Amino acid sequence: xxxxxxxxxxxxxxxxxxxxxxxxxxxxxxxxxxxxxxxxxxxxxxxxxxxxxxxxxxxxxxxxxxxxxxxxxxxxxxxxxxxxxxxxxxxxxxxxxxxxxxxxxxxxxxxxxxxxxxxxxxxxxxxxxxxxxxxxxxxxxxxxxxxxxxxxxxxxxxxxxxxxxxxxxxxxxxxxxxxxxxxxxxxxxxxxxxxxxxxxxxxxxxxxxxxxxxxxxxxxxxxxxxxxxxxxxxxxxxxxxxxxxxxxxxxxxxxxxxxxxxxxxxxxxxxxxxxxxxxxxxxxxxxxxxxxxxxxxxxxxxxxxxxxxxxxxxxxxxxxxxx
Length: 323
Ligand code: SF4
What we know:
The chain is α/β, with parallel strands linked by helices. It has helices spanning 36-45, 65-73, 79-92, 106-112, 140-152, 169-186, 213-226, 244-248, 274-280, 295-299, 308-314, and strands at residues 2-11, 51-55, 96-100, 118-120, 157-163, 189-196, 232-234, 253-257, 286-289.
């Protein structure tokens, strides 16, 4: 059985965020925004990576006047226009952008679509949770609306659930059912990340227990039962001690792995090397590099116009990454 991964460079454009999730160790109120030069520096380091992973705080220009001022000085009237320009910069340097920009309206998705191989938004959980009580962007109905709108626009989409943030077992099943229904309606979900909560120092949830390995395995099995077969299940390889039991439980993707940038969301854990990953497959699975857009969507040509030339160069006949 094939297990996929993508080689990426992680671009945390800003840690400023309008939300305040109780488990988040990434968010900061110190004003910060990566300049074009910084983005370019990261891209130039990223030897062999094909994916530019844009992950950052949600709509920082809505709550930080200083961010609006920096953007104005750089010639942007809003944050999303700056993100689109950074997408274009990544393409210029030979990368396929995958952007996680939080909740988006139809017109905002349309802005990003031409310059991205795929887009992403973690559902987290499809139920209201206390840890999201200070996060307007974590209202389940808004997140579902964004994923649905991306479906209407036929944008290949990555979503996922965060396990162990106060939800009940049946909430996990419900959240996976919601994702499965969205995929059945629009066919656009390429992968679902099943991510375990990790407590971060200095956050409201620093003493909250992590989900056990057994609970995570049970959730991956549940995901495999609920999600249509063509939707991949991703387990982040830096957040579990051994991916093998998760692959046996039904996971078939190991996400984006970077040789040059850390996981800025979980900086306490290192990415495994490709050789370590191969060893962890115990000879039972074949590790294959994919692009930030899954083979099915490459074949359907459901990618932004601006990335089509790069995808033609990077994709093999089956839609995986050409080795
Ligand atoms: S988890 Fe994401 S949305 Fe929540 S505070 Fe952190 S950066 Fe913002």
